[in-house]
């Protein structure tokens, strides 16, 4: 069963370019570890310090394997170190969801 991780970030609104670079790196890294990233969503109108991200893995076990491997991966550790150095993420919440799609009877899922 597919599992989708939803992240809600409180970010420093004065460091959005640094957070955006962080997000772009994680999109590639999640995909490298077998996940499907659905993107980062940066503040635009309204609240200036909330950003979102969503990505999926085929199962919770595969998500856990990604997490374990990412804690040992040099590139992942370097991306995390950038936030630790510059503190552009103030806090975050992680939630998990099970996506629901209409069946394939004439309805195409987005790639």
Brief write-up:
Pfam families: NIPSNAP. By secondary structure, the chain is of the alpha+beta class.
Average pLDDT score: 92
The H/E string reads EHEEHHE
Estimate nothing, just give the exact number of structural domains: 1
Helix fraction by DSSP (H/I, runs of at least 4): 25-40%
Characterise the protein shown here.
It is a single chain. The protein has a single domain (3-97), classed as Alpha-Beta Plaits (2-Layer Sandwich). Helix content is 37%, strand content 29%. It has helices at residues 16-32, 60-70, 74-86; strands at residues 3-11, 36-41, 50-57, 89-97. Strands 2-3-1-4 form a four-stranded antiparallel beta sheet. A hairpin with an 8-residue loop joins strand 2 (36-41) and strand 3. The protein is globular.
Helix and strand layout, with pairings?
Elements: E1 3-11, H1 16-32, E2 36-41, E3 50-57, H2 60-70, H3 74-86, E4 89-97
What descriptive keywords fit this protein?
alpha+beta; NIPSNAP; 111 residues; disordered C terminus; Dimeric_a/b-barrel; 4-stranded antiparallel β-sheet; NIPSNAP protein; single chain; 29% strand; 3 helices; globular; Alpha-Beta Plaits
């Amino acid at each position: 069963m597919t599992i989708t991780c939803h992240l809600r970030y409180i970010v420093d609104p004065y460091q959005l370019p640094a957070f955006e670079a962080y997000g772009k790196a994680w999109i590639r890294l999640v995909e490298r570890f077998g996940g499907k990233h659905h993107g980062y969503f940066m503040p635009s109108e309204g609240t200036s310090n909330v950003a979102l991200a969503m990505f999926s893995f085929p199962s919770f076990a595969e998500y856990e394997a990604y997490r374990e491997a990412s804690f040992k991966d040099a590139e992942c550790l370097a991306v995390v170190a950038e936030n630790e150095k510059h503190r552009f993420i103030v806090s975050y919440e992680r939630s998990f969801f099970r996506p629901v799609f209409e069946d394939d009877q004439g309805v195409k899922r987005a790639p």
